[in-house]
Amino acid sequence: MKIQTRLLALVICAVLPATLVAEPPNDTYQGAYLLKISVPGVPWPISAFSMYEADGSLREIDYLPTRNLVRIEAEVGHGHWFQKANGQFVVDYKTELPNGQVRQVNALTTLSASGNELTGTATVKLLNREGTVVDRKTVKVTGQRASNSATKLVGSNRRPASFQPNRGQSASR
């Protein structure tokens, strides 16, 4: 009887770590989040909607006021994300702006235990048409998981043909 108990304990000890390692790390982050981005010097947070796919791709829609503050414009960015060994998530994406400039975002976020809230910081760079950084800011990001109906309203996760996911490296132009 003691041999069977020890054998069972040995099997459990061998299988449990393999089961924990085999779980895909990206499942908890996958989905859509409604974000608030706090920019230094801007009196109100910027709203955004991010969709994170299981393959590590993402689509972010930033809602920004126009220069005259009369209306809101949506700007769509595409990029990738992955989970670090310490559990934090790296998010990199870029948005091609109507004026030919590019907004490049590199973020580090943490997901709550429930998976419904995220917090983090991001470095946002504005690149001119030649690819030179003309502005750089560090912003704070908070978010809430969006419902499935909100995700369907935004549309599919289409990426431009020029987008190539590059896990583990910054998205750059």
Features:
single chain, 173 residues, alpha+beta, Lipocalin, eight-stranded antiparallel beta barrel, 16% helix, globular, disordered N terminus, disordered C terminus
Description:
This protein is an alpha+beta fold and 173 residues long. The protein has a single domain (31-154), classed as Quinohemoprotein amine dehydrogenase alpha subunit, domain 2 (Lipocalin, Beta Barrel). The chain has two helices and eight strands. The chain has an eight-stranded antiparallel barrel with strand order 1-2-3-4-5-6-7-8. The chain starts with a helix and ends in a 19-residue tail after the last helix.
Secondary-structure topology with pairs:
Layout (H helix, E strand, L loop, with lengths): L1 H21 L8 E8 L7 E7 L4 E9 L6 E12 L5 E8 L5 E10 L5 E11 L5 E13 L2 H7 L19
Antiparallel strand pairs: 1-2, 1-8, 2-3, 3-4, 4-5, 5-6, 6-7, 7-8
- What would the CATH topology be? Lipocalin
Q: What's the CATH superfamily, by name? A: Quinohemoprotein amine dehydrogenase alpha subunit, domain 2
* CATH architecture call: Beta Barrel
Residue runs with pLDDT of under 50 for 5 or more positions: 1-26, 149-173
Q: How many alpha or pi helices?
A: 2
* Sheet with the most strands, sense and barrel status: 8 strands, antiparallel, barrel
**Proportion of helical residues:** 10-25%
Cα Rg: 20 Å
Overall tally of structural domains: 1
Which percent range describes the beta-strand content? over 45%
* N- and C-termini, Cα separation: 66 Å
